[in-house]
Amino acid sequence: MVKYGKCALVVLCAPIVESSAQEQFRTGAPGNASYDYVVNQIVVIGGGTAGLAIASRLAVSASVAVIEAGGLYKQDNGNQSVVPYYGLVMPFLGTTEDYPRQPLMDWDLVSVPQPSAGNRRIHYAQGKTLGGSSAINTMAYHRGTVGSYQRWADLVDDQSYTFDKILPYFKKSSTITRPDVQKRNAPNATVLYDPTVFDNSLHGPLQVSWGNWVDPTQSWLARSLQAIGQTLSSSGFSSGKVSGGAWVPTTIDPKGATRSSSKSSYLSFVSEKNKAGVTVYLHSQASKILFDKDKRATGTTVSTEGREYVISAKEEVVLSAGVFHSPQLLMLSGIGPAATLSTHSIGVVSDLSGVGQNLWDQIFFNVLRGINVPNTGTYLATPTQQAVALQQYFNNTAGPYSSAGGYLSFERLPPKDRAAFSPRTASMLSKFPADWPEIEYIASGFPSGIANLTTIGAISATLLTPSSRGNVTIRSASIADAPVIDLGWLTDPADGETLVAAFKRVREAWKSPAIAGILGGPEILPGDAITSDADILKFIQESARPIWHASSTCAMGKAGKVGAVVDSKARVFGVKGLRVVDNSVIPFSVPGHPQSSVYMLAEKIADEILKGR
Ligand SMILES: Cc1cc2nc3c(=O)[nH]c(=O)nc-3n(C[C@H](O)[C@H](O)[C@H](O)COP(=O)(O)OP(=O)(O)OC[C@H]3O[C@@H](n4cnc5c(N)ncnc54)[C@H](O)[C@@H]3O)c2cc1C
Ligand SMILES: *[C@@H]1O[C@H](CO)[C@@H](O)[C@H](O)[C@H]1NC(C)=O
Ligand SMILES: *[C@@H]1O[C@H](CO)[C@@H](O)[C@H](O)[C@H]1NC(C)=O
Ligand SMILES: *[C@@H]1O[C@H](CO)[C@@H](O)[C@H](O)[C@H]1NC(C)=O
Ligand SMILES: *[C@@H]1O[C@H](CO)[C@@H](O)[C@H](O)[C@H]1NC(C)=O
Ligand SMILES: *[C@@H]1O[C@H](CO)[C@@H](O)[C@H](O)[C@H]1NC(C)=O
Ligand SMILES: *[C@@H]1O[C@H](CO)[C@@H](O)[C@H](O)[C@H]1NC(C)=O
């Protein structure tokens, strides 16, 4: 059944809900799909970012089943996961315990209290839908640094992870469309990027482009960051350098200015080519990976609306359930720290102490001030304005709805700001590769609701060099219980020190003469009374939020190294026929935004598997 959205002008109403009958891929019916009649050579658990990318590539020559706990986001979330602007304001992305729940889309994961972060429990949104977190993320696209991928290669003892060697996979995964200068209509938001690190002749499924709209507030706040030394990068952030500022591209399909998720990109791409290759099991939760007596993964038990059944894999099982659920499912299946498994009477298949450990997370805080420049929300404040914006969007793929991303800025803290670091903090930071930025700054703004003030402007700082580590464990031996998540925020004092220095940089940006003319009133948050390092730290502890880049809970590493869960081909140590491919195996949080690296990894391992068949 096709439903139409409520629109200002009937002619502009686009169908917003797709029924599964219209989908281009085959869905599996719950039941014991054995290879007698449904030959699943490969079973992918989790139809998320990595899961759909790897399944789609493998489907070229293998029959692949995808087990996905969620459903279809257009049915379950209307246009919220489709229209770029909505990606920034989806209510269920709230991080406090009382966030508005959207159980059809989100896993409803809430951390244990964080003693070093105001004892708060944090809601950590994770996509529970075909497309996974690529269907709810904020779409910024860029890659890590040359030094960070060299570190990856060294940690896993495999030089095929250097930037030069993985660049072909970044290229293969993405297609870039250069900015439409006319539609963006913002000559003061110049896009600079290096086109040579993309290759559109490869027809990469993931669409990467610049929204046809620039938030005026961001264009101003970008100036403040440039004024304090973070000058515009001439190459953007996809060629191995992540330093200075840039208008970054976003995973938006420019054809209709809609979100490019792993579902709308990879899965539809492969479906066009090879409809039979992928069978998707929706609303189906894998509950335990099965092994034969030789510890070879043979499939998984699955539950769909209470019906239990087995999906078998002739060749191998690929686990792509994400940073919290991949370690959970490994532990439920007998792979993890032996002590944890025995606590829950789970038989040990492979004793791997690293499963669920080494959780990296990047956190941020905001400093808010009133400014008198409009923000995107200003243009959508009234029904009349929304009607205008809808016209711009549907007529012309332009206007406020068409765009998500904006301006990102990265730096290593300058000498004057690191002078106060303790020797320990200085030493922790010195362990990162020299080109690894320490802080990312993001500018944004929202309608103020205060008389005489258009906008509340926000400049945030995100920690990209966390020394604190969290962990994930299981509550019981049942998949019905959510994993226990301890984010470990700010448990290492180096992180607080680094963020206090970043806070001072943010205030410096706010005070730069470049934006003096637009300021309206004193600092709103935390306010001018907060000046001592102790007070600043307390503010950070009480207000830090996730930027949703958690990673590394099933870390890739050298065989025999304590903590390593998978080898450099993503194969789980101690068993056969099982790989983990998602952001949980990347051994650290790649500096900046991870989705490009997750897609790259899926491409790389797919290639590996296809070569080995
Ligand atoms: C709100 C938000 C904003 C973000 N913004 C950005 C950004 O702007 N740029 C960027 O680069 N990155 C961003 N990220 C991060 C990025 O989107 C993620 O790192 C990436 O999508 C993770 O991919 P994944 O394959 O590891 O996991 P996911 O994409 O989360 O996939 C996991 C899948 O497994 C399924 N699953 C889990 N358990 C089971 C089970 N037992 N059985 C069956 N299925 C199961 C889930 O439903 C899900 O579909 C953001 C993330 C979030 C949440
Ligand atoms: C999204 O859907 C809602 C509800 O159907 C509708 O009111 C709104 O106009 C739509 N927005 C866009 C940009 O399509
Ligand atoms: C699947 O097979 C198992 C074992 O043979 C059986 O117990 C179960 O009922 C079957 N499930 C379905 C849904 O057919
Ligand atoms: C950039 O241009 C836009 C569109 O004309 C305008 O709204 C905004 O204020 C400008 N920003 C700066 C920093 O001049
Ligand atoms: C959208 O298209 C209609 C019909 O062609 C036109 O009348 C209208 O002016 C257009 N609106 C915008 C904002 O482009
Ligand atoms: C706010 O606006 C009102 C009406 O425009 C004006 O009278 C008042 O002086 C303004 N206040 C400040 C603080 O600018
Ligand atoms: C997780 O980390 C916390 C804090 O370091 C620690 O107290 C706890 O024991 C750890 N839990 C697991 C399961 O490793």
In brief:
By secondary structure, this protein is an alpha/beta fold.
Strand content: 15-25%
**CATH topology name of the largest domain:** FAD/NAD(P)-binding domain
- What small-molecule ligands were found? flavin-adenine dinucleotide, 2-acetamido-2-deoxy-beta-D-glucopyranose
Question: What's the CATH architecture of the largest domain?
Answer: 3-Layer(bba) Sandwich
Secondary structure category: alpha/beta
Summarize the topology.
Elements: E1 26-27, E2 42-45, H1 49-58, E3 64-67, H2 73-77, H3 146-156, H4 163-173, E4 174-176, H5 181-184, E5 206-208, H6 216-227, E6 244-247, E7 252-253, E8 258-259, H7 263-273, E9 278-281, E10 284-291, E11 297-304, E12 307-312, E13 316-319, H8 322-332, E14 335-336, H9 338-343, E15 350-351, E16 363-371, H10 383-396, E17 407-411, H11 415-418, H12 423-430, E18 439-450, E19 453-463, E20 471-473, E21 484-486, H13 493-510, E22 519-525, H14 533-543, E23 545-546, E24 578-580, H15 595-611
Parallel strand pairs: 1-9, 2-3, 2-13, 3-9, 4-5, 13-24, 14-15
Antiparallel strand pairs: 6-17, 7-8, 10-11, 11-12, 16-19, 16-22, 16-23, 17-18, 18-19, 20-21
Helix pairs in contact: 1-7, 1-15, 4-15, 12-13, 13-14
The structure holds flavin-adenine dinucleotide and 2-acetamido-2-deoxy-beta-D-glucopyranose (NAG) (6 copies).
